[in-house]
Amino acid sequence: MLYNQIKTIYPQLTETDFLPFTGTIHLQNDGESDYIKAWNHPTLAQPTEAQLVATGK
Amino acid sequence: MASTISAGTTSGTAINISGDTSGNLQFQTQAGTNTITVPNATGTMMVSGNMPAFYYYQTSANTSLGNQTTTKITYDTKGYDTANSVSSSVFQPTVAGYYQINAGISISTASFGCFLWIYKNSSVIAQTFTGFQVGVAGGTGTVSGLVYLNGSTDTCSIYAYQSSGTTQTTNTGAVTFFNGVLVRAA
Fold first, then answer.
1. Residue B13 class from Cβ within 10 Å (0-12 exposed, 13-18 middle, 19+ buried)?
2. Hey, is the C-beta of B68 within 8 angstroms of any chain A C-beta?
3. Number of neighbouring beta carbons within 10 Å of residue B171
4. pLDDT: is A30 or B134 the higher one?
5. Which pLDDT score is estimated for B137?
6. Could B66 and A2 be called an inter-chain contact, meaning their C-beta atoms sit closer than 8 Å?
7. Mutate which of A17, A34, A37, A52 to test chain B, going by most B C-beta atoms within 10 A?
8. Which of A16, B53, B74, B164 is the most exposed place for a label (fewest CB within 10 A)?
9. What does the DSSP assignment read for B66-94?
10. Distance CA B52, CA B186 (A)
11. According to the model, what pLDDT value does residue B53 have?
12. Percent of chain A beyond pLDDT 90?
């Protein structure tokens, strides 16, 4: 799952970062697969597709 | 303009019928404070056959909700869809108006909280937050809203969000559903 991939790359992220409305990272699934709908984290860069795949999750 | 059938209060001229060629018909009182009652107490009135109503639910295909991921709920079974207005679990009617939208979701594999949202296009217009308890299969969170849809481009769908720490799946059956009906045309 995308959430696990991101947490592997950035283990310092917390549940708060992913909360709806108040979080800075918004993951979504419209019926196909998970994707990053919004990434507005103030210090961490949005991971690339290669980074996500490399997690092996 | 419209052809009219008017009820008045003067003896001998209480009923007035006025016609035009617009194809529209109005029933009205000649005095504004009076009442029009249609039908009578034992009658039945058909408002329109073109008022979309639908009901979908899950039977064999549940929805997997990834941890902390806003996920669209999908429905594999149609109870009814009078105007065939639902495709891929998205309601997109061709009649403009105000729709009563309802949805429910059931999960019984863990104890956690779950948001359930009605989306109009890509925006949340109604929300509930429900606590589920492990092993309680009858637990269902529901959300309702009155939504204006323009009858052309507007869509309506159901999304959920949970943060149990792992992926959760919905229970199939009538406990995970999506229904709606036009209650007032635009």
1. exposed
2. yes
3. 19
4. A30
5. 61
6. yes
7. A34
8. A16
9. -TT-EEE----EEEEETT--EETTEE--S
10. 13
11. 96
12. 91
> Could you state, in chain order, the average pLDDT of each consecutive group of 10 residues for chain B (186 residues)?
86 86 88 79 76 94 92 96 96 96 88 92 92 72 96 97 91 92 90
Could you list the beta-strand ranges (E) of chain B: 3-7, 15-18, 25-29, 53-58, 64-65, 70-72, 77-81, 86-87, 90-91, 97-106, 112-120, 123-132, 140-149, 156-162, 168-169, 173-185
Contact at CB, A29 and B69, closer than 8 angstroms? yes
The 3-state secondary structure of chain A, one letter per residue = CHHHHHHHHCCCCCHHHHCCCCCCEEEEECCCCEEEEEECCCCCCCCCHHHHHHCCC
Q: Which two tokens stand for residue B83?
A: 């105007």
| Chain B residues with beta carbon closer than 8 angstroms to that of A19 | 68, 163
Look over chain A and give the mean of its residue pLDDT values, rounded to a whole number.
95
Mean pLDDT of the A11-36 span = 95
B159 vs B67: CA distance, rounded Å:
13
